[in-house]
Amino acid sequence: MNLNYSIFSKIFLFFIIFIILFCVLFTTISINNESIILVEPSEFYWPLPNNHTITSPFGPRRAPTSGASSSHSGTDIAATPGTPIHSICDGYVIFTGFKGAGGFSITIKASPYKVSYCHVNPNYIVSINEFVSKGQIIGHVGPKYVDYPSNYHDGNGYTNGATTGPHLHITIWKNDKLINPESLFQ
């Protein structure tokens, strides 16, 4: 009886170790021929490594411009035009284009997260369906003014969305619910 218990214990222990290793080593899975990247919070990369000034945090605020919301969906990080923007995680580009108040934007899907980088330079260096790696440069902070017809403009010309100046606005959804981007970098 003791021998059977010992063999069972070893098999059970081997099975548990195998499951743990499998979960740790394989972070990409495929469902219905669609790759899904699984991301853990400790794996995020700050999008602007040399810029850390938050000019408008996530949550309630006084709208800074006409067309801007008083419920801020993301975090604004001060930066000069042309500053490289890094992907905060591995994922696939699912959108590049103009997003109203967000101006020119790039959106990356990394299940269960979706990350939008707004007020970027419209000369995109990534394409839809392209895989990007954590830390990879995916674009550059855009100028305040872009010659693009939209509802977001002032007397000086068309703007890159509803903005008071050049910066990166980052919005993050987890399981389709908005979350505070800063919570992933603490």
Strand content: 25-35%
Looking at CATH, which topology of the largest domain would you report? Glucose Permease (Domain IIA)
Low-confidence stretches: 21-37
- Helix count, DSSP H or I runs of 4 or more residues: 1
User: Helicity, in percent?
Assistant: 10-25%
Just name the CATH architecture of the largest domain: Distorted Sandwich
Give the N-to-C terminal Cα separation: 52 Å
Q: Shape from CA axes?
A: elongated
Give the biggest sheet.
8 strands, antiparallel
The class by helix and strand makeup works out as: mainly beta
CATH fourth-tier homologous superfamily of the largest domain: Glucose Permease (Domain IIA)
Helix-strand pattern: HEEEEEEEEEEEEEEEE
CATH class of the largest domain: Mainly Beta
Radius of gyration: 21 Å
Mean pLDDT: 75
Number of strands: 16
Task: Tell me what you see in this structure.
With 186 residues, the protein is mainly beta. The protein folds into two domains: 2-37; 45-184, Distorted Sandwich (Glucose Permease (Domain IIA)), CATH 2.70.70. It is built from one helix and 16 strands. It has one helix at 2-25; strands at 28-31, 34-37, 54-56, 59-60, 71-72, 75-78, 84-86, 91-98, 104-110, 113-118, 131-132, 137-140, 153-154, 157-158, 167-174, 177-179. Strands 3, 6, 8, 9, 10, 11, 15 and 16 form an eight-stranded antiparallel β-sheet that branches. It has a two-stranded antiparallel sheet with strand order 1-2. Strand 15 (167-174) and strand 16 form a beta hairpin. The chain is elongated.
